[in-house]
Structures are given as C-alpha cells and as structure tokens.
Amino acid sequence: MHYQLPTTLIILLSTTLTTSFPLLAPRQSIQDIADAQNAWRADTSMVSQFLSAAPSLTGTALTSAASTALDAENNELLHKMVLDATFLATDTSVQDANDILVMQHKFQDVVDGLTNLKENGEGMTPADVKGEVGEINTGRCGSVLPAIDAYFRAAAGVLNNGGTLFATRPSNC
C-alpha cells in the first residue's frame, strides 16, 4: 500500500498534537466549529460528485476532475484538524472515527485511489475507472463517510442549532 508522505504526516501530526498535548491545542470558537463542519461537508460533497460522475468520464476530463477531487479530499484534513482540536481528546465517537480515518488508513486509501485516477486516468478503460471508483467507494461509503458523520454529530452537539449535517454520499455508494 502506498502512502503519500505529506498526507500521512499531516494526519499523524494533527492527531498526535491534539491527543498528546490537549492543553496546547487551541480551543475553537463556535464559529470555527461551524465553518469547519460546513467546509468539510462542501469538500466531501465535491469528492462525492466526482465519484458519481467518474465512471462516465474519460481522458483529460477524468484526470482534471480527479485532480479537483483529490485537492478537495486533501483539504478535508484542514477541517478535521479544527474539529480534532475541540473533540478528539474528549469525545469517544470522534476518537473511534479518527481511528478509522487515520489508524486504519481509510482516509489515505481514498487519497491513493483519487491519486491513481488523477495520474493514470487517461490510460484507463471505462471498466478500469469503474473498478477504481468501486474500490474507493467500498471504503469511503462503508467507513470514511460514517466517520465524518461522527465528527458532524459532535459539532452539532456544540452548535446546538437544531440540525445535524451528514457527509454527502455519491450516487454509486
């Protein structure tokens, strides 16, 4: 399994700093939590839209869209770090979600799949693309998106705005 060093380092550092040194982690404002949740959902939606459309894309349209989705996926880490600073040390559901995303490498598996589509998509057959999307969605739909939902539930408990967001699923989940 191939892990990109920058992505892995960001994940591990954010987890280590917020769990090992919770007093050093900045306490996030209600607005920071709301902004992180909304931005994470927007990035998740962008990746889901790509995965819904990817089986019908070919050539440079596929690689360009995969590049955009990969950027959104990596951007999700920024929003995760904000929510980790508030919830990771104290919320067991967020701790479990973090275990799935980081320790079980489920987030990295999505990054690896999107990277493959970005770098090799032009030469892939439609069957290859469908297979790669299916592999990404197996882990993403079954583990990653429910883990993100756990973060959103924790945020909803603090925001107390009467609603809970859920990570957007692709149509081929």
Care to describe what's here?
The protein has a domain at 44-159. The chain contains 6 helices and no strands. The chain has helices at residues 5-20, 30-53, 59-87, 92-103, 106-120, 126-159.
**Beta-strand residue fraction:** under 5%
Form type: elongated
- Integer-rounded radius of gyration: 16 Å
Measured as a percent range, the helix fraction is: over 70%
Largest sheet: none
Mean pLDDT rating: 87
Helix and strand composition category: mainly alpha
Order of helices and strands: HHHHHH
Q: Extract low-pLDDT stretches.
A: 16-26
Number of helices: 6
- What is the CA-CA span between the terminal residues? 23 Å
Could you tell me the number of beta strands? 0
Briefly, what is this?
With about 170 residues, this protein is mostly helical. The chain has a domain at about 45-160.
Strands, helices and their partners?
Blueprint lengths: L4 H16 L9 H24 L5 H29 L4 H12 L2 H15 L5 H34 L14
Helix pairs in contact: 1-3, 2-3, 2-6, 3-5, 4-6, 5-6
Features:
single chain; about 170 residues; mainly alpha; elongated
